[in-house]
Design a protein that fits this description.
Number of strands of chain A: 2
Order of helices and strands of chain A: HHHHHHHEEHHHHHHH
Largest sheet of chain B: 6 strands, mixed
Strand order of the largest sheet of chain A: 1-2
Structural class of chain A: mainly alpha
Strand content of chain A: under 5%
Largest sheet of chain A: 2 strands, antiparallel
Radius of gyration of chain A: 20 Å
Distance between the termini of chain B: 45 Å
Structural class of chain B: alpha/beta
Helix content of chain B: 25-40%
Radius of gyration of chain B: 24 Å
Largest interface: A-B, 28 and 36 residues
Oligomer: heterodimer
Strand order of the largest sheet of chain B: 6-7-8-3-9-10
CATH class of the largest domain in chain B: Alpha Beta
Shape of chain B: globular
Number of strands of chain B: 22
Strand content of chain B: 25-35%
Amino acid sequence: MENKTKKSFGQIVSNFSMPILLLLLMLVFSILSDRFFTPLNLTNILVQNVHIAICATGVFMIMVSGGCDLSIGYQMSVAAVLVAKLLSNGTVSVPVAILMGIAICVALGCFNGVMSIALNSQPMIVTLGTMAIFQGISYLISGSKTYHNLPRSFMYLGQGKLFGKIPLNAVIALVLIVIVGIILNRTHIGRKVYAVGDNPEAAKLAGLNVPKIKILVFTCAGILVGISAILLAARSGSADSSTGTGIEFTGIIACVLSGVALKGGEGTLWKAIVAVFVLGVLSNGMQLINLGTYPQYIAKGIIMLVSLYLSNKTAKKA
Amino acid sequence: MELLELHNITKKYPGVIALNDVSISFREGEVHALVGENGAGKSTFIKTISGAVQPNEGKIVFDGVTYDHLTPQKSLELGISVVYQEMIQFEAMSVADNLFMSNGSDAGFFVNDAERNKKTAELLEKFQCHVSPKTWVRELSMANRQIVEICKAILRKARVLILDEPTASITVEEQRRLFDVIRELKKQGVTIIYISHRLDELFEICDRVSILRDGRYIDTLDISDTDKQGLIKLMVGRELSENYPVKDNPPEKEVVLKVDNLSGNGVRNISFELHKGEILGFAGLVGAGRTELMHLLYGAAGIEAGTVTMNGKTLSIRTPSDAMKAGIGLIPEDRKWQGCFLEKPIYWNISIANIKSLCNGPFISSSKEAALADHYGQRMRIKAPDYRVNAGTLSGGNQQKVVIAKSLASLPEILIFDEPTRGIDIGARYEIYQLMIDLTKEGKSILMVSSDMEELLGMSERIVVLHEGEQTGTIERPEFSQERVLALASGL
């Protein structure tokens, strides 16, 4: 019998592999560039990755429930252009626009959930289809226009600082992540989400309403995606139909890197969030040492493949 | 003549000695059974022969040649084939393609389908397996899939064929056919190593039997020199007085569950009554609709017609959750896929169905959860170092206890046991039987589906027999006999 209460050194290292990796990367970039470890740059990394962290939280929930969502980027795009259009028309107030932005993502997330249940098909493929639909919706709303001149009160959400120091968007993200973390780990709803991902058949026979839970997860992820879109648009001060696109991949890579099981049922939220910043530091650091966007893509891809290799290796050991 | 000899095989894993100085030899053309409780080392022993495991010590002699160890390739070259319980096949390919995937006999670059199909048909015919060579493997029954695996071994000119629990999921009729196949192979001089938990069948088909216990070799006997009790004694190292504990509490008059003309999910017009404290058995061949019927009662499938009345009240069950609320619990047939969350801790498994009741507000109370797990864990005598270990690390018997604990935690009045002891070793079986009886003493009533004839006859107080979705009879205890059950199950 193995004794799980005593943890070996190796287990501790593997448990903290994300923070260790993050510190290592920071150390390497501090040595390679004297512009890396400065308050300004570190704050930049933080505020630039906040919306990704919120999205990754949504991706995390979906993956733990055994799903996958490729349409998140275009959900963000729809929300961003909708909010920006409403605000630049000046027809509605800022709070109403924000609520509508979140509401549209809730609707789209719910649509994803309902579709993947109704079609009884792999969510990855279902959301590949809905992604195309959302892309179309986004361009219909924006007409390929870029919206500038968003109200200052709106932009405060993405650029404001509490007490002149703490970025407001980071605080919002932290609050959201903590709430989701508590729901997933401490409540019966969270427990059911893990159960559905781990073994849907056993979950059904244990009396859980599997379709309802799956749809709920997609819908709640929509809330996070909507907020993420708003923070992104508010920070950049503009929005168009490419806002947020591609973010689902960063989210999925971060989750997989942090050890979220592809089949669902397993994963630790804080590790996924740290993994977002691992990827964020990597992009930022590579930029600083003059490796542009394209080498960054390659680095991200390699990290994804290496993490798949490592997760397979640990899965076999267990 | 000895064809395959294993001498002083020892295999150590960190913290466990799986095989400890085991020596067994197999003669050419014999059917040699290998028995032992779960964890006795049977799987490791087989893997040593198939080359999947390399022993730390010992040697293997095949046809006069000595090897330190075998590799999977070497083992295949020597003509050793294993038919595993969980067969790995190309599901979406034809039987013929499966057979010839690694036995390609095609001339040139192109697949000669006509030739393949013809050869496959001949082989299948020889084993009374009447399926078309073009059928996709995933459309075959378990028994026919087994035949396909055996055919594969024959094409490889196997000299040693290892059958791992071949009768675990096939019907009595199919078992008979399998035994014919085994006898035919034996005639051709193939050595068969036969592993099974069902001791009775060993006496029908085997020549000799070797017993393993706790990784050690105990003995090899001619099957004619022993009997079931003797084997059990050697396997468990102690004498089990009886196979089935005595149920001395007759069922009460009170009817707890009344099913009238229930149809749906492939079964039609099923009617029966379950009395308080009764164990009601359900017999039938694979595909007779027993599990399907249980899923109807449990709300896991839709009822099309008929009524279910519990304690005089008509139930409307649409989901498992409805059934649980009404007081019906299910211990599903497939522990690994339907019962257990293997990668989750024991306490987690026990609490999941009732997690809401263990909460303060929306938050799970760890202390309530631990108390529930402790209560049912101890009651079921789950053997684990800690209830925080994952269910997947437990033995089959202990996993089943976890599943039962999960069900009991929602305080059911009626429990459905679907194949309660499949793949579970003898010691744990007895415990589960005893527990079922204890439950009836507490006033709970049990519906038990089983493919194990002895278990049905030994544990049930009445048996409902199904045949192709229809009820062909109900047998009272005094009329119990294997022949009677089989006749009804075959629709005679």
